[in-house]
C-alpha cells in the first residue's frame, strides 16, 4: 500500500489519487514552496508564505510563462492577498492528511509531513489557483549519511524565485550525475559554486590569512575559519534554511556571502547543504569535471572527475545543526492558527 497523500485545489480535496510531489511539480507551471510539518505544526510557515508571494510576484512580472500566465498581470501580487487563499487549502489538506495517516492499516502515526503549496494561473489572466500537496516524510538522522555532490549544471533562470518548471528543467543535468551522487551543484564559470539543484550549499573554509598546520578545534576555529555561501546577487534561491543558518550562526565564526571557489577547495574543511525538508546535511564528497566545458557537451562517464573528500559531519556543521534544531522549536507554526 502506498503512503497516504493529499492534493487540494482552492480548498477542495481532489477525489483522484494524487501523484508524487515531484510528478505534480513537473506537470504544471507555478510558484511554490515546500515546508516540513510535524504533528504540532509547520516549520517556519510565515517565512514560507512570504517566499511564496515573492516568487509569484517575481514570476508574474518578469517570467509570466513560468506562472502559467500569457502576459504580466495588471495588479501586483502581495503576501496579504495570497495568505488567506493559501492557508485555506493548507488547513483543508493538513486536516485530511492527518485523518488518512490515522486510518486503520496505516503506519504513519507520529511521522512528519511534506507540504508543497503552489500558486499558478487560474481561469483568467487576473485569477490565481492555489494547490497544496501533502505526503508522508521520514527525515534522515543528522550525521548518519552525508551528501555526495557533483557539479553538473549552470545557474537557474529567474533564480530568485522558486518555480515548479525547474523540476522538469533540471532533468537535463541528469546526464552529468555520476553514480551515487545525491545532489547536483550549479556554477556559471566552473569555479564559483552557486547552489544545489534543490538545496543551498555552504563550506566551512580556512581563511587565507590563517593557512597553517595548527590542529583544528572549536577554540581555534573562531579565528581561522569562516562559513561561505553564495550571495543572492550571484543568482541563487533565497532559501529559508540558508537565511536561518545566517541568523543562528552565533558561534563566533563569520558567515561570508561569497560563492565558494572550487579552485580553493584545499581550504575547505567542511561542507553542508540545507533545505526546508532535510534542514541540514553534511557533505561527504564534492566532485567536479576536470574541464568545465564538459558539463554542456558530455555525459558523466565521458568526463574526468576531481573529487574533494570530507571526514563526516565536522564540528562546525554539527554546532550549526544544533542551533537550527533549537530554533525550529521556537518557530513551529501551530496549524490551528490557520483557522
In sequence order, what are the helices and strands, one letter per element? EEHEEHHEEEHEEEHEHEEEHEHE
Q: How far from one another are the termini? A: 32 Å
Give the oligomeric state: single chain
Helicity level? 25-40%
Unreliable stretches (pLDDT < 50, length at least 5) are: none
Form type: globular
Beta content? 25-35%
Q: How many beta-strand runs?
A: 16
Classify the secondary structure makeup into a structural class. Answer: alpha+beta
- Average pLDDT confidence is 90
What does the model show?
With 339 residues, this protein is α+β, with helices and mostly antiparallel strands. It is built from eight helices and 16 strands. The protein starts with a strand and ends in a 5-residue tail after the last strand. The model has no long low-confidence stretch (mean pLDDT 90).
Helices, strands, pairings?
Layout lengths: L4 E5 L2 E2 L7 H6 L4 E7 L3 E3 L1 H18 L16 H23 L10 E10 L6 E10 L9 E7 L12 H4 L13 E5 L5 E4 L3 E7 L11 H7 E5 L10 H9 L6 E3 L10 E8 L3 E11 L4 H4 L7 E5 L5 H16 L1 E3 L5
Parallel strand pairs: 7-8, 7-14, 11-12
Antiparallel strand pairs: 1-2, 1-6, 3-5, 4-16, 5-6, 8-9, 10-11, 10-13, 13-14, 14-15
Helix pairs in contact: 2-3
Annotation keywords:
28% strand, 8 helices, globular, five-stranded antiparallel beta sheet, alpha+beta
Summarize the structure.
The protein is of the alpha+beta class.
Amino acid at each position: 500500500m502506498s503512503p497516504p497523500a493529499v492534493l487540494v485545489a482552492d480548498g477542495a480535496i481532489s477525489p483522484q489519487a494524487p501523484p508524487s510531489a515531484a510528478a505534480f511539480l513537473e506537470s504544471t507551471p507555478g510558484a511554490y514552496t515546500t515546508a516540513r510539518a510535524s504533528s504540532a505544526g509547520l516549520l517556519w510557515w510565515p517565512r514560507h508564505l512570504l517566499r511564496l508571494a515573492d516568487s509569484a510576484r517575481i514570476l508574474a512580472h518578469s517570467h509570466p510563462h513560468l506562472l502559467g500566465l500569457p502576459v504580466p498581470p495588471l495588479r501586483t501580487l502581495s503576501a496579504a492577498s495570497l495568505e488567506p487563499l493559501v492557508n485555506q487549502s493548507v488547513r483543508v489538506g493538513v486536516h485530511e492528511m492527518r485523518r488518512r495517516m490515522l486510518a486503520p492499516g496505516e503506519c504513519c502515526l507520529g511521522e512528519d509531513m511534506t507540504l508543497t503549496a503552489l500558486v499558478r494561473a487560474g481561469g483568467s489572466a487576473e485569477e490565481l489557483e492555489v494547490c497544496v500537496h501533502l505526503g508522508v516524510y521520514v527525515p534522515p538522522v543528522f550525521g548518519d549519511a552525508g551528501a555526495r555532490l557533483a557539479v553538473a549544471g549552470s545557474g537557474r533562470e529567474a533564480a530568485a524565485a522558486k518555480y515548479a518548471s525547474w523540476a522538469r528543467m533540471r532533468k537535463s543535468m541528469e546526464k552529468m550525475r555520476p553514480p551515487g551522487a545525491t545532489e547536483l551543484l550549479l556554477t556559471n564559470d566552473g569555479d564559483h559554486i552557486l547552489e544545489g539543484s534543490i538545496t543551498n550549499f555552504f563550506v566551512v573554509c580556512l581563511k587565507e590569512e590563517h593557512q597553517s598546520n595548527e590542529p583544528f578545534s572549536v577554540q581555534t576555529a573562531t579565528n581561522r575559519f569562516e562559513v561561505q555561501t553564495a550571495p543572492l546577487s550571484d543568482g541563487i534561491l533565497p532559501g529559508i534554511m540558508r537565511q536561518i543558518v545566517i541568523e543562528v550562526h552565533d558561534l563566533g565564526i563569520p558567515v561570508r556571502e561569497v560563492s565558494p571557489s572550487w579552485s580553493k577547495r584545499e581550504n575547505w574543511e567542511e561542507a553542508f547543504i540545507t533545505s526546508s525538508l532535510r534542514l541540514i546535511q553534511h557533505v561527504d564528497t564534492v566532485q567536479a569535471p576536470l574541464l568545465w566545458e564538459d558539463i554542456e557537451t558530455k555525459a558523466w562517464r565521458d568526463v574526468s572527475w576531481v573529487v574533494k573528500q570530507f571526514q563526516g559531519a565536522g564540528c562546525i556543521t554539527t554546532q550549526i545543526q544544533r542551533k537550527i534544531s533549537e530554533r525550529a522549536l521556537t518557530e513551529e507554526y501551530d496549524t490551528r492558527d490557520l483557522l
